[in-house]
Design a protein that fits this description.
The complex is a heterotrimer.
Chain A lengths: L3 H35 L7 H10 L4 H32 L11 H16 L3 H23 L6 H25 L5 H8 L11 H25 L3 H6 L4 H23 L5 H12 L7 H22 L6 H23 L3
Chain B lengths: L5 E10 L2 E11 L4 E6 L5 H8 L7 E6 L2 E2 L5 H5 L2 E4 L11 H6 L14 H13 L15 H14 L4 E5 L7 H18 L2 E5 L3 H7 L2 E6 L2 E6 L1 H4 L2 H8 L3 E5 L6 E5 L11
Helix pairs in contact in B: 4-5
Chain C lengths: L1 H25 L7 H9 L6 H34 L11 H16 L4 H24 L7 H23 L3 H11 L8 H20 L1 H7 L3 H6 L4 H23 L5 H13 L3 H26 L7 H19 L6
Helix pairs in contact in C: 1-3, 1-13, 2-3, 3-8, 3-11, 3-12, 3-13, 4-5, 4-6, 4-7, 4-11, 5-6, 5-11, 8-11, 8-13, 12-13, 13-14
The chains are: A mainly alpha, B alpha/beta, C mainly alpha.
Chain lengths: ~350, ~270, ~325
């Protein structure tokens, strides 16, 4: 007879490690929030910031600029991260994140169109971006499934769609008046400038709802990770669960994109980093969410304060993400998992 | 222990417009090891998939204890019927113990961590497949035979009374084949688990099966004990192959010797 | 029968090419008549406004022809040496590689001459193509389509963020780059053509000389070796020709994608895999298609025009998806 504790010693120690890592991540996030709230063109002490927020004093920089900027950073980060993590887990490939397979650029096309040609406000832009993102996800999925669905074909189709969408985006940027172009270019590289408080409540509600649903579905997602066959045999309603997960991810991506622009690499990086820190044995929704928020806030802090020129956050995260992307590719190709 | 009776009622199934199984009625004998035999394309894997709900029948129904599977809840079926599919994928870097634990999905509740029952079931499954010492190894570094045992343990952790296996011995060398089949036989004798397998090897089927279903062109053409089915006449009917049947000197089950067109038949009585 | 088919393909190709050249010269914001064209070509009557319009459209058309032919032939070469049906300059990340180097050139070395553009684009393209191909060849099964496409897309993604780092802080770099980045054959001059032509002709002639070797390479590697082919050398020369063809074009016109993917596929489906015929006919059709894309861009983009790079992506991306959809699952 083998002792229970021996077989599961590792599983149990993982659970403890998991809690410790979550705590550390939360602390890092908190520190970044403090940094982003206090440091900038004008520096405030932490006490001043807390006092201002509690007393509803009307300090323009803290209340109208830094608070929305920080909140948007956190929640867009979470949105990109959990959407990416879900896609990667569902499709069983870290490279299958929505920013690589064209779902994000579907939203971007719609958003750029609304911004450049229709001058819509951000709320409406979000709505249109959600519809376009969902439509492109559905289109890519439909195009990829002929006599059965295949992840490889989905990724290739996504790459094709991506090329098509970027051509549309280039076209619109070319057509736009000279004056709007820098705005659009900046927006397209992912940016937390000029975010106003009114768009935030909806984003926060959506992200929180999505987090709860994703956590609820994480057991099913674990089963789905073993492949469609196993999931069915284990009692998962494959079609419903998969569609629901994809729908939620697309909504997250599109909303966040409409608010901050496509902050590159967050969707793609957060899941693998969280997996590496915690363990690949579970669905890392919460750690991925924290990672996403940390990456965005850290990127924004670096881009705003630490470099000679101010860069939008998306550029910083893009540069951070690029080597990792290549590294991951080398590892995956060598391991033969594609 | 109650008998879980699984019956196929007039099943027609296939992919798209292509009908592969054409009207099959059969009852899985409870607590026995059954093997489905048939040539390539005879529909045996399709039959297995239909039993496990991987394929919805075009007409007919699969009935578990007087209830059609279509009327049952997914998780309830998952507590009764388990499967080892032909191709299993594991998430990269997952450990053996964690992978087997995923078989507990139908029993888990929202936001709850694993219960004592979950741990016991996983442990028993791993013991039955003799993989306890592999618990912390990554699945990527196991041999083919070890991997297969881990995936069978996953299905066992599901604690079902009926277990389907789709070609569990393909791609394994003969020693691993015997190892896996021995473990399955032990499982059947100890726990009375009903086992249904698709196997390619006729002699191994005859050695391990209590009951054999023979399929051809999407129809069930014969069923019965190995000594009823493994006859040179039936083998020719299923595979179109001439053979001589002798008795296995060790297990006393029937064994076939295929006849090649080059064989000299003058010595055969 | 087969010979017949090939003759038909060539004849139709040449007719289409001639028609597209005529349309390209006559059609535009200002329509001109046949006499104006003749005047324009022979430089007579140079005060006539219409003749000047024609004179401006001629280099654009000729350049389009050369660029289209170069890109398709580059596609043929890359598909053959990688034995991969979706290899194409844009999939291999060549465009982005060239872009990155050109941006660095604009931002730090203040490059202006076209020859500098071409040189720097060639280096960028070559490095990127080698990098992507080697990345995709790691692990089992060599550079399969899926590995190649993902590696290309990933490297392009990575390079794109590097590009923005250089473009973002300096608005003059942004302006120069933005216009280069959208592939267009609109702004080219006779000098550009003269500059491009020697490279293009040399690369095409060498590719044609290699065509028997390339035919043999399509067999399995072992067979080719057994037949006495120096695989490494053939592959190396063909790769350099391919990169020269696409990088020089890219340097002058900006990234034009998918021509190298679409044309060879269509042609191969009709004439088979004989490289001599494949290279020649891909060249003819590639030139014609790029000119037609350019004309379509002028029609759809009115009152301005839609760059041919955008047009080819809009036409080519769906063709790519169609090819993926048609391919057998295992071969991906």
């Amino acid at each position: 007879m083998i002792d229970n504790s021996k077989i599961f010693a590792n599983i149990k120690s993982h659970r403890i490690k998991y809690k410790i890592i979550l705590t550390i991540m939360a602390i890092i996030l908190l520190i970044l929030v403090c940094l982003n709230m206090t440091i900038g063109e004008k520096n405030y002490s932490l006490m001043e910031v807390i006092h201002t927020l509690l007393s509803s004093e009307n300090n323009y920089i803290i209340v109208k600029l830094r608070l929305p900027r920080t909140l948007a950073g956190i929640f867009c980060g979470i949105a990109f991260a959990i959407a990416g993590n879900t896609f990667q887990t569902l499709l069983g490939n870290s490279l299958a994140s929505p920013d690589i397979i064209g779902v994000s650029s579907g939203s971007t096309v719609a958003a750029v169109f609304c911004i450049l040609f229709l001058n819509l406000n951000r709320g409406l832009v979000s709505f249109v971006a959600v519809l376009a993102g969902a439509a492109s996800a559905l289109l890519i999925y439909k195009l990829a499934s002929k006599d059965g669905y295949s992840t490889n074909r989905l990724i290739l189709t996504g790459i094709g769609a991506q090329a098509f969408f970027s051509a549309l985006i280039n076209w619109m940027i070319k057509k736009a008046s000279e004056y709007d172009v820098p705005t659009a270019m900046r927006w397209m590289s992912g940016n937390l400038n000029g975010i106003t408080t009114d768009t935030l409540p909806l984003l926060i509600v959506i992200v929180l709802l999505a987090l709860i649903t994703m956590t609820y579905l994480s057991n099913s997602l674990q089963a789905l990770e073993l492949g469609e066959n196993y999931a069915t045999v284990l009692g998962v309603n494959v079609d419903v669960t998969r569609s629901l997960l994809i729908l939620i991810s697309v909504v997250l991506i599109a909303f966040a994109t409409a608010i901050s622009g496509p902050i590159s690499s967050i969707a793609f990086l957060s899941g693998p980093i969280a997996g590496r820190l915690c363990s690949k044995n579970q669905i890392n929704t919460i750690p991925a969410a924290l990672t996403g928020a940390i990456l965005v806030l850290a990127g924004d802090f670096i881009g705003q304060n630490l470099l000679p020129t101010r860069y939008p956050v998306g550029i910083i995260t893009g540069i951070l993400g690029a080597p990792y992307l290549v590294y991951l590719l080398i590892k995956q190709n060598k391991g033969g998992s594609i | 222990m109650k008998d879980n009776i699984l019956i196929a009622n007039d099943i027609v199934a296939g992919y798209g417009d292509n009908t592969i199984i054409d009207g099959i009625n059969l009852k899985i004998p409870p607590h026995k090891i059954s093997v489905i035999l048939g040539s390539n394309g005879s529909g045996k894997s399709t039959m297995l998939k239909t039993f496990c709900r991987l394929l919805t029948p075009q007409s007919g129904s699969i009935v578990l204890n007087d209830k059609s599977l279509q009327e049952m809840k997914n998780k309830d079926i998952a507590k009764s019927i388990g499967l080892l599919p032909q191709n299993s994928v594991a998430p990269e870097g997952i450990t053996v113990a964690e992978l087997v634990t995923r078989g507990r999905f139908p029993y888990r509740k929202f936001m709850c961590s694993l219960t004592a029952e979950d741990y016991t079931a996983v442990k028993e499954a791993m013991e039955a497949m003799k993989i306890c010492d592999l618990a912390d190894r990554s699945i990527d570094e196991l041999s083919g035979g070890q991997r297969q045992r881990v995936f069978i343990a996953l299905a066992l952790a599901q604690q079902t009374d009926i277990l389907f296996l789709d070609e569990p011995t393909t791609f394994l060398d003969i020693a691993y084949q015997i190892e896996i089949l021995d473990l399955l036989k032990e499982l059947n004798r100890k726990k009375k688990t009903t086992i249904v397998m698709v196997l390619h090897d006729i002699n191994l089927s005859s050695k391990y099966a209590d009951y054999i279903f023979a399929m051809k062109n999407g129809k069930l053409i014969k069923e019965g004990s190995p000594s009823d089915i493994i006859t040179s006449q039936t083998i020719e009917e299923i595979y179109g192959l001439k053979s001589v049947v002798i008795t296995d000197p060790v297990s006393c089950s029937p064994m076939i010797i295929p006849i090649s067109s080059h064989d000299d038949l003058t010595n055969v009585s | 029968m087969k010979q017949n088919k090939i003759t038909i393909v060539f004849t139709i190709g040449i007719i289409v090419l001639i028609l597209s050249v005529i349309v390209s010269i006559t059609y535009g914001a200002k329509a001109v008549g046949l006499s104006d064209i003749i005047d324009g070509i022979f430089g007579r009557n140079t005060d006539s406004f219409n003749a000047n319009v024609v004179a401006a459209r001629i280099p654009r058309t000729i350049f389009g022809l050369i660029a289209g032919a170069s890109l398709s032939i580059a596609g043929v070469l890359m598909q053959s040496i990688t034995r991969n049906p979706i290899a194409d300059p844009s999939i291999l990340g060549v465009n982005t590689g060239a872009s990155l180097f050109i941006v660095i050139g604009i931002a730090f070395f203040n490059i202006q001459s076209k020859i500098a553009y071409m040189g720097i684009a060639f280096v960028g393209a070559l490095i990127t193509a080698l990098f992507v191909y080697n990345l995709a060849s790691l692990g089992n099964g060599g550079a399969t389509p899926i590995k190649l496409a993902i590696s290309g897309a990933a490297v392009s993604n990575a390079l794109t963020s590097l590009i923005s780092i250089f473009v973002m802080p300096d608005s003059s770099v942004m302006t120069t780059f933005r216009f280069w980045q959208i592939g267009s054959i609109g702004g080219t001059t006779n000098t550009d053509i003269l500059l491009l032509l020697p490279f293009t002709i040399a690369a095409i002639v060498i590719s044609l000389m290699l065509s028997n070797n390339l035919d043999t390479m399509l067999l399995s590697e072992e067979t080719a070796k057994a037949l006495g082919l120096n695989i490494g050398l053939t592959r190396g020369i063909a790769a350099i020709c391919g990169v020269i063809l696409c990088s020089t074009t890219t340097a002058l016109a900006g990234p034009i994608s998918f021509i190298g993917l679409m044309i060879p596929h269509l042609i191969r489906a009709i004439v088979g895999s004989n490289h001599k015929i494949l290279i020649l006919s891909s060249g003819i059709y590639g030139g014609a298609i790029l000119i037609i894309s350019d004309v379509l861009g002028r029609i759809l983009g009115r009152p301005g025009e839609l760059e041919s790079g955008i047009m080819t992506a809009l036409i080519g991306a769906p063709v790519f998806i169609y090819l993926i959809r048609k391919a057998k699952l295992q071969s991906l």
